[in-house]
Amino acid sequence: MTDLTKLTIADARDALRKGDVTSAELTQACLTAIDAADALNAFVHKTPEVAKSQAEAADARLKAGDTPDLCGIPLGIKDLFCTKGVPSQAASGILAGFKPEYESTVTSQLFDAGAVMLGKLNMDEFAMGSSNETSVYGDAVNPWKVDDRKLTPGGSSGGSAAAVAADLCLGATGTDTGGSIRQPAAFTGITGIKPTYGRVSRWGVVAFASSLDQAGPMTKTVRDSAIMLRAMSGFDPKDSTSANIPVPDFEAALTGDIRGKVIGIPKEYRMDGMPAEIAKLWEDGTAMLRDAGADIRDISLPHTKYALPAYYVIAPAEASSNLARYDGVRFGHRAKLDKGDGITEMYEKTRAEGFGAEVQRRVMVGTYVLSAGFYDAYYNRARKVRALIKRDFDEVFAAGVDAILTPATPSAAFGLGEMADADPIKMYLNDVFTVTVNLAGLPGIAVPTGTDASGLPLGLQLIGRPWEEGDLLNVAYSLERAAGFVAKPTHWW
Amino acid sequence: MAIDTDTARRVAKLARIKVEDAALPALAQEFSAILGFIEQLNEVDVDGIEPMTSVTPQRLYRREDVVTDGNQQAAVLANAPDAREGFFAVPKVVE
After folding, report:
1. Which residues of B touch A308 (CB under 8 A)?
2. 8 Å CB contact of A237 and B61
3. How many domains, in total, are found in chain A?
4. Which residues form a coiled coil (chain B) (predicted)?
5. What Å distances lie between residue A390 and A248, A438, B22, B51, B55, CA to CA?
6. Along the 95 residues of chain B, how does pLDDT read in single tens digits?
């Protein structure tokens, strides 16, 4: 069997069960591909020893007939997940040298299911960014390329997206606070789902904005997302916001039959100045779902335009609190102190040296909106607007809408460095279609459905009812089949 | 709302991030741009709306109030930049 790295998780699972391939072979193929792909800067901590020993254990399990879906499947893990004894830095200088003494719940569950960890993946520092340009490891690079420029894989899960799109691993973990799974998935022509808030444990995942953060899979197909999401999900007593409800077999929901499903098309997502090719992609996707028997309905989500400003109060506020723990005392970097420096100087110098510019900016904005005299004007007002944004969705779902179709991003991938001089808000606009979903705690999935004029992938987003990821994945599966997106980046790295 | 350099300095102090004086004007300008963007929220009528605390209307999970973990001093201190005699070490706090 050639090109083992190009297998989907579903196909690899079947081949492993039949004995057509071993996890050791599959893992070695991925490790070889990773070593040849340093130009993408996707894997930032390679763990070949861990991978080989996990693959060996998986092969023994497979031989014994114990074959969970992910048994023997090689995956990449975003650097945001704490992995025992393996560097876990959230792509930040402030966590330089940090090796957790514990394993995140998500990676524990994946490993219990027999998955193999190939290494840790690049990302924006503390998941704050939309282009993977705020990473202490340097930029991750999109395997897609149409001219001399190097393109962003998106962010914050840029390394995960690049690794999956370039066939360096069969799937990867991502996390999504404002669009950090869905935007990079769209920029690289892969699938990524952010589940309902509370579906996947946040324990052991470095916190950015705790009321918004959710982990999810980034994969080559919708079926693979269904398989991987099931393994990542479930109640965890160590996360107080984890939901104690059963996890269904999401893959079993993929019938492809969406006849009679009501799909909402929100008029507020038709932004001023939307590029014609994004508008066309959206219309084409709508037509595909209609042709598959769905009932298309125009809907209104009136508070959509206030989602980004509300997010840029709430997320920095929570970040300023969460990132207070990086003080140079318990883990990571501590600044070299001058004679006479006290503990305050230690904090201030450590945080100035350890945090990059975007993280410092957001921590300070968060500090400001929570400070005395401004708490009501900014933070409480944003939380009220958030309640209204969620109410918009509640009303639409109560009126019978099963899923909502929108573009995933306002454009295709842009060049690395192209936004360097832009004002930060321009970068924030990347999340304009995705951030509402985090604020409302809903599941959202990005599916590649076409390309722009230059040949770069573009994706659509489907938003589902809370806890109904199975239904959402089935609509996504139908869209995936109708779109028939099979393009792959040309190998240049 | 325009943020002046004094406010930028105060915020940096509150956040415990050292910012050189020369960098404060640019920082103040960035804050002003971001806060200007956020001020759109003032257009929304939020009368009678409760600020959201949780997206899922669930009571936080509770458990018995018993010790579930412990005796891990070495693991707790393993990543400390400076640990001595079983403690985290920091510069002198009390004169």
Report:
1. 37
2. yes
3. 1
4. none
5. 25, 10, 43, 12, 8
6. 689 999 999 999 999 999 999 999 999 999 999 999 999 999 999 999 999 988 987 777 778 999 988 999 999 999 999 999 999 999 988 87
